[in-house]
Amino acid sequence: HPTESGFNTDVLALYDWAKARSGNSSIIFWGHSLGTGIATNAARKLQEERGVQVDGVVLESAYTNIIEAATHNPFAKLYYYFPGFEYFILEPLNLANLFFRTDENLKMMSCPLLILHAEDDGVLPVYVGRKVFEIAHSAYKDKTKVKFITFPEKLGLGHDYMSFNPELPALVK
Description:
Elements (H helix, E strand, L loop, with lengths): L3 H18 L6 E5 L1 H17 L5 E5 L5 H7 L1 H4 L7 H11 L6 H5 L6 E6 L7 H14 L6 E6 L16 H5 L1
Parallel strand pairs: 1-2, 2-3, 3-4
Helix pairs in contact: 1-2
């Protein structure tokens, strides 16, 4: 069964492997959706446990924490008002120790941070991404290290297709 600590262990092992082979190249953590919590968890652990700062973090379709993401998800909203929503949907996440606290991780990080969100994201609405940006921007001492880029609805990138945008490599650089 996947666990939050297991994801952290895997990402840090991958980081070690890449770092050993990358020479002086930069290494960034890039998380999409659920992966945004994983990426910030790993960046925070690397910083706190090893005193090493990752070269950057990119968050695509970010959320604050898994509980809030579940309550903002349009699919979950169908069931939100039914009795037992918290017990059947949210409580199992707590019991499994799945929190993915992007919001808390950002308060402890200081590496360059880029947040990407499509205005037509139907899974995690853009206002959730803006909230992530506001949390990071208020927590970072160096505000210039935090960037938020939205992609207009007319591009049709939704939740899963930001990587198809031909301008993305230039934006990341």
